[in-house]
């Protein structure tokens, strides 16, 4: 029976000057796997990884937090955590299933784009009791024990690609996005969200991203809202706020330092922006609840 390995349990008991990202933890194969057994021992350990995590739950109740949003998984369900997202486990009751940790390079680009399009929108989906992922995981568990077998890495890669495809499909179906997949609008929105994640420190206006995409700001807002339900400006602001909240909650940086890290020269402007969009000051958010990691 597989259990959590110590490499996922680095000391996160105190705030630091920067948010730690767990790197290079998956070994040469690029895959690790755990069950829900003994997960209660590791509750409230918040961290972010540089790889994907797929949660495949067959039974039980699993409560966890993803970037300040509580995720409640009950019964058969699947979910994913993308690289860089803060997460921690809050409660586990009679759960069975697996947590699969996968290097980015093992997830085909098409599936990574789907996960990007659904990022911070809906990252969990209910599934049937005879879900295909439930059948693949026992095979993956057995195959991971066969390191001496010919074509070991190729077989593992193929199985992970299949699993990632199933995960992407379930997430898409839960959001009714299938009609848009592969279309010009969908691809533009995926690229937009990728750009926001990469360039938010220097680019904070819709027109800047529209220029990068060679389209008008009005059209960018229109298609992003059509695909995600929110305009482009919403996702830009949410990216700023999310990273600000991460630093307020998990680091010792003061508001002025956080504003600088986010690309603001005027920390007072950042403070006004934060209060306008959250209805509280940055310090009020920091003191909202005690840090329990």
Automatic annotation (TrEMBL):
Every copy of the HTH araC/xylS-type domain together lies at 190-288
Q: Which organism is it from?
A: Flavobacterium cupreum
Asked if the Swiss-Prot or TrEMBL record annotates the protein with the keyword Membrane, the reply is no
Q: Which SMART domains does this UniProt record tie to the protein?
A: HTH_ARAC
Which keywords does UniProt give here? DNA-binding, Transcription, Transcription regulation
Record Pfam families? HTH_18
* Descriptive protein name: Helix-turn-helix domain-containing protein
Q: InterPro entries in the record, alphabetically?
A: Homeodomain-like_sf, HTH_AraC
Per its UniProt record, what PROSITE patterns does this chain match?
HTH_ARAC_FAMILY_2
Q: Which GO terms describe its molecular function?
A: DNA-binding transcription factor activity; sequence-specific DNA binding
């Amino acid at each position: 029976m597989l259990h959590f390995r110590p490499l996922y349990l680095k000391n996160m008991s105190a705030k630091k000057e920067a948010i730690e990202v767990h790197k290079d933890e998956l070994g040469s194969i690029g895959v690790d796997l755990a069950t829900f057994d003994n997960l209660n021992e590791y509750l409230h350990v918040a961290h972010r990884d540089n790889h994907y995590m797929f949660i495949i739950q067959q039974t039980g109740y699993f409560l966890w937090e993803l970037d300040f949003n509580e995720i409640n998984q009950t019964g058969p369900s699947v979910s994913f955590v993308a690289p860089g997202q803060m997460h921690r486990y809050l409660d586990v009751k009679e759960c069975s299933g697996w947590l699969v940790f996968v290097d980015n390079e093992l997830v085909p680009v098409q599936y990574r784009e789907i996960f990007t399009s659904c990022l911070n929108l809906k990252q969990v989906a209910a599934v049937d009791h005879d879900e295909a992922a439930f059948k693949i995981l026992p095979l993956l568990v057995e195959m991971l024990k066969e390191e001496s077998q010919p074509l070991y890495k190729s077989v593992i890669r193929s199985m992970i690609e299949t699993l990632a495809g199933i995960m992407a499909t379930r997430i898409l179906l839960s959001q009714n996005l299938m009609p848009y997949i592969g279309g010009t609008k969908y691809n533009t929105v995926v690229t937009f969200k990728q750009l926001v994640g990469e360039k938010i420190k220097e680019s904070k206006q819709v027109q800047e991203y529209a220029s990068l995409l060679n389209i008008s700001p009005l059209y960018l807002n229109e298609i992003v809202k059509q695909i995600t339900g929110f305009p482009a400006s919403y996702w830009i602001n949410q990216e700023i706020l999310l990273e600000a909240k991460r630093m307020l909650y998990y680091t010792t940086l003061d508001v002025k330092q956080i504003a600088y890290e986010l690309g603001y020269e005027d920390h007072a402007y950042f403070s006004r922006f934060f209060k306008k969009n959250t209805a509280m000051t940055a310090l009020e958010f920091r003191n909202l609840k005690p840090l329990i990691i």
